[in-house]
Amino acid sequence: xxxxHRHTLRLAHCLAIAATLIGCAASSPDVxxxxxxxxxxxxxxxxxLAISGPQYVEVVDPPPVRPLGECDSSCPDDIWGGLxxxxxxxxxxxxxxxxxxxxxGRWSYVRAGGTYTCxxxxxxxxxxxxxxxxxxxxxxxxxxxxxxxxxxTAGDAVANWLIENAEYxxxxxxxxxxxxxxxxxxGAHFSDISDRxxxxxxxxxxxxxxxxxxxxxxxxxxxxxxxxxxAPPTTCPVVCYGTAAVRADCSYTDCALTGEVxxxxxxxxGAGAPPEPAEAVLHADVALPAVSTVGGLTRFxxxxxxxxxxxxxxxxxxxxxxxxxxxAGPLGAARSGTIxxxxxxxxxxxxxxxNVAAVPLTVPGFLVAxxxxxxxxxxxxNFTPPRVRANAxxxxxxxxxxxxxxxxxxxxxxxxxxxxxxxxxxxxxTAGPLRVLDTRAIEAPLTANVPYEIDVRAPSDAVGxxxxxxxxxxxxxxxxxxxxxxxxxxxxxSNVNFVGSSVTANGVISALGASQRLCVVSNVSVHLIVxxxxxxxxxxxxxxxxxxPTRVLDTRQAGARYTGRLGEGQVIELPxxxxxxxPSDVRAAIVSxxxxxxxxxxxxxxxxxGLGVPGTSSLNFDADDPIAAVSVSAxxxxxxxxxxxxxxxxxxxxxxxxxxxxxxxxxxxxxxxxSEDPEDMDPPVAPGDDAGVVxxxxxxxxxxxxxxxxx
Length: 711
Description:
The chain has about 700 residues and is mainly beta. It is built from 7 helices and 40 strands.
C-alpha cells in the first residue's frame, strides 16, 4: 500500500493537524503588548525566508481608473479626498472576509482595519489604477493606533505567517513596516516602500500601524487549500519528496515547475542539479511488469444499476462487512470493508463493473477496490477534501467472491453496481475514439434534472456503449450525472461527480435499450462531452480477460519504462502485449489513468497506437490535484498510447484486457471512423467556488445532514 501516491500520504499527517487548528486558534496566547520597534524595516527571520522564498502566487492587479470609470480624488495629490464611482468596484469576496475573521480570531490583539473601499491605489506610482480594496481582495489589519510605531512583537508574527503560507492561503502581496512582499517574484519577493510616499497620510508610518494583505483571485474565491482543507498548523514535519518541498506549515511547492530541485536543509527549492527534462524519458530496455490472469475469458452482462452501499448511513451500508467488526462508519487505514452481494449478477460472475465515489473527511488519500484479500499496489479513486471524487472500475472477484475497499485515510465510500463479467453475455467491438457530443458546439447545456438523449452512432446490432463522459461545470454548484439506457427509469446511482469550475471525466459502460441511444441526467445545468471508444454487441468478437490489477507505469519511480513528467503534447507508448504473462492477441485494455503533480490544468487521451492523436480525452485534471479516471481503449499492435496536453506525472494501472473470442464471427458492420474533431477537452470555464455535492435519491432515505454528500 505504500507505493500509490506517496506524496499525498506524506501530507496526511500535516493535514490531520490542520483540521483541528481552527477550533483552537482563538485560545492562542497573545504576544506581549508593549510597543516594540525593531530598528529598520520589517525583517523576517531566516527560517521564514527559507519557507517563503520558493513560493509563487500570481499577482492580479485591479483595472485602471480610466476609461472604465471616474474617481473624485486627484492623483497623486489627494488620493483620499473622495471615493470612486467605478463599475469594477466589488465588495469583499467570501475568502477575503473569512481570512480577515480568522486572523483576528487567532491573534486577538489584531483589530479590524477594513476590507472594502472604492478608491484609487494609494501608491503614487500606481494611482491611475484602483486599489485592491476596491475589488474586494484586500484586508487592513490594525496593529497599533493610527500614527503609532510598529509593534514588531505583534505585527511581525502575523506578517511572517502570511508569507510563509502565501501559496496555501492565496496571498499575493503583504505590506508591513516599510516593506512589501510580492508573490509573483520568485525568491526575491521583498521591496522597500518608496520614500516618495512620505508626506501624506499614507506615509506617516510607512505601514507601521497596520498590515495590508492582498488575496489572489483563487484565495478571494475560497479555492485555495486554506479554505478547502483548513488552516495550516504552526508546525509540521518537513520533508523533501522527489521534486516537492513540503514545508513546516504543511504547504508545499513543486520545485521542478521552476526548473529547480528540492534541497533538504532547510527544505526548499534551489539550484544545484539539472532541470527536469522537457519530456518523460523512455527507457526502451525496461519491460513492463509481469501480469497474471484471473479465471478465464468472460462476456459482459448489463445489470439494473443499483447502489451496493453508502457508508454515510448505517441502513444503506449494512451489507458491507467491516474488518474491525463495526456496523457503521467510514472506511480508513484501520478499517476496510468487503461486500459479497451483487444483485442480478449471473452465475459464474468473476468480475464486476462498479462506479466508486469517495467523500473525503479531513485529509487527502486514495481508495482501492480489489478482490478479497490483500490490497494490490494500485489506486481506484484519489481524493482531496472537500472534493468528492468518483471512478469506474472493473474489479475481479478472485477466490473470495467479493470486493474489498481499502483506504489510506478516513473516507466515506459509495459503490454502485452497473454490470458483471461472466461466462455469458455480450462482447466488445472497439471504435474510434469518436466524439459524438459536445454541447458547447450547440450552445445548449443540459437542463437540470431533465434526461438528455445522445446519438452515440451505434451500429445496428449494438446493445450498449463504452464511452468517456466529461462534465464542464461553469458555475459554483457541484453535482452528479447519471448515464442509463433511454426508455428505462432513471436509476438512483451516478457516473460522474463534479465541483464548480472544473472539468471532470469518467469511463461509462451503459446499455442503450431499444432506441440505441444513451440517456444522461444531471442534477444541475452543465455542458457535456461524450467520446465513444466501443460498443457492446451480442456477437462482439472481443471477450474480457480479468487480470490481477497491476501498476504498469509510474513516471515518478526510478526503473519505470518512462521517468519524469510527460511533456506538453507528448505521446508515450505502452507495449502491453509484451508484458510477461499477458494473453496473446490483446486488442483492447481497461486501464485507470491518474495524474500526479500536474503543473497546469490539462487532459490525457488513451488511444490505439498507430493512429494520430484523436480529438478526444480520457481524463481531465487541474494543477496539483491528483485524480484518476478509467478508460476502455483499443490497442494498436498490442500497444496503448497516451497523450498529455500539459506536464504531469502519470500512473497507469492495468485492470484487464480484451482478446478475440475463439471462433468469433467478424463484425457485421465496421465501426465509425476516429474523430477528427481537434477541439481539446479543457476550455476555460467560468470561475466558481467549490461547493458540496448533492446526494441524489437512493433506496434509503438520507438524513438531512448528509445532503452535502455525493453519489
